[in-house]
Amino acid sequence: MTRTILILNGPNLNLLGTRQPEVYGPTTLNDVEELCQAKAKQLNVEIEFAQSNHEGVLIDLLHAARGKHAGVILNAGAYTHTSVALMDAISSIMLPVIELHLSNIHAREAFRQTSYISKVCVGQICGFGASGYPLAMQALTDYLGEPA
Ligand code: DQA
Questions:
Q1: Domain residues for 53?
Q2: Per-residue confidence at 130, pLDDT binned at 50, 70, 90?
Q3: Has residue 119 got a pLDDT over 80?
Q4: Catalytic site residue 143?
Q5: Nearest-CA residue for atom 7 of ligand 1
Q6: Residue burial 14-43, b: 16+ Cβ < 10 Å; e: rest
């Protein structure tokens, strides 16, 4: 059976392409999804690509990933820096989660340099713009190893 990965995007990422392009680049979320679909073919995995502006919906999608996906790539947007609930959801689902950001959060405002989710994720990729998504897919697939 083909392995599947959830790629989950948080608040305001639906506005990519027009939102602060000097920080987040010109790529739209549709472009990002296309990049991910191309990488999925190369890796021989399937993806579910989702976005929500709502913390509870993101948590529901993480819960629903159990038994369905082999792992998760999560750009939690600003909830990265605020959400104990998302951190708890990640701890609860027993799936490897990679934290992803387009921008280098460590080189930005002090409040962005704290991530509630880093400690419960396998690792973090940030600062590579849209290229970070296929990088994270490669990293997650490598982490998971050969399917049983
Ligand atoms: C972001 C970084 C966050 O600090 C910010 O709130 C976002 C996007 C990124 O992809 O660089 O919404 O997660």
A1: 4-144
A2: very high
A3: yes
A4: no
A5: 77
A6: eebbeeeeeebbebbbeebbebbeebbeeb
Residue 148 pLDDT > 80: no
What CATH number has the domain bearing residue 67?
3.40.50.9100
Look at the chain and report how many structural domains it folds into: 1
Catalytic residue among 69, 79, 101, 116: 101
- Does residue 101 carry a catalytic annotation? yes
Query: Considering the entire predicted model, what is its pTM?
Result: 0.97
